[in-house]
Write a structure and sequence with these properties.
Elements (H helix, E strand, L loop, with lengths): L17 H11 L3 H8 L3 H13 L6 E5 L5 H10 L3 E6 L2 H12 L6 E6 L12 E7 L8 H11 E12 L5 H23 L2 H13 L3 H10 L4 E7 L4 E7 L1
Parallel strand pairs: 1-2, 1-4, 2-3, 4-5
Antiparallel strand pairs: 5-7, 6-7
Helix pairs in contact: 2-7, 3-4, 7-8
The structure holds S-adenosylmethionine.
Length: 245
């Protein structure tokens, strides 16, 4: 029972909580794709393509896509990587519904399934997948270590965890410009498209609070992955980390 005298402290700016993240994504689901295209000026498609290449899929690969949202990475994996199967998962059903509509038009060889799953607590057997992927999802997890542990468990030995996430631009003048863009243009654009500016303030803060490349790599090593490498894209605005079990 909650103690009425005690108040739950407000989460720090950029700090995810399950309720906060679920609330934001269920509200912005219908506008999410449009916002993505506009805010990244379409570059997010190139980032996803590179992520698929780094996943090194073949026609036998069993892939688990976590925090798959509206399915853009799922569909890029299917079209470009053509693995045997992809299980596309997210904990916000409204986001997954949009992914399902995209998959309905897919005609390739990959079997695509959908399931509502929390990325911090995976309802799968040990070593069930050859690849686990996540695009712009890890940043929203209150407990990254729990996710890394779970992914280790469900990957087969030698399997790859491929993470596409916002990171830290390497050149300082570019970083200053980019942070200005994040703090001003993104909340304005998000507010104009969805009517909810506060969700985009959170998204920006979460990008700024997220560990840079080396620190994330250290966390993955600590979780027990045997090798971790990362690839900076667009001057380090995003990075793809590849962790091998
Ligand atoms: C920024 S979107 C990314 C969606 C998609 N991967 C993409 O690249 O467009 C983040 C997604 O993570 C999901 N998410 C956040 N926390 C989650 C969790 N604990 N378990 C599963 N999904 C989660 C949200 O519901 C949202 O759909």
């Amino acid at each position: 029972m909650s103690d009425p005298g005690k108040q739950t402290p407000e989460p720090a700016p950029g700090q995810p909580t399950t309720d906060r993240v679920k609330g934001i994504f269920s509200a912005i689901a219908p506008s999410y794709d449009r916002f993505n295209r506009l805010s990244s000026m379409g570059i997010d498609r190139l980032w996803r393509r590179r992520t698929v290449r780094l996943a090194k899929l073949d026609s036998t690969s069993r892939v688990l896509d976590l925090a798959a949202g509206t399915g853009d990475l799922t569909m890029a994996l299917a079209r470009q990587g053509r693995p045997a199967s992809i299980l596309s998962t997210d904990f916000v059903p409204q986001m997954l519904e949009i992914g399902k509509q995209k998959a309905a038009a897919y005609e390739g060889p990959t079997k695509i399934l959908f399931e509502v799953v929390d990325a911090q607590d995976l309802p799968f057997d040990d070593a069930e997948f050859d690849r686990v992927t996540v695009a712009f999802g890890v940043r929203n997890l209150p407990d990254r270590a729990a996710n890394f542990k779970e992914v280790q468990r469900v990957l087969r030995p030698g399997g790859r965890y491929v993470i596409l996430e916002f990171s830290r631009p390497t050149l300082k003048p570019f970083r200053v410009l980019y942070h200005f863009y994040l703090r001003t243009v993104i909340p304005f654009l998000g507010g104009a498209l969805t009517g909810d500016r506060s969700g985009f303030d959170y998204l920006n803060e979460s990008i700024l609070a997220f560990p840079p490349q080396l620190a994330l790599s250290a966390e993955l090593h600590k979780a027990g992955f045997s090798t971790v490498e990362w690839h900076n894209l667009t001057f380090g605005i995003v990075a793809v980390h590849v962790a091998v079990k």
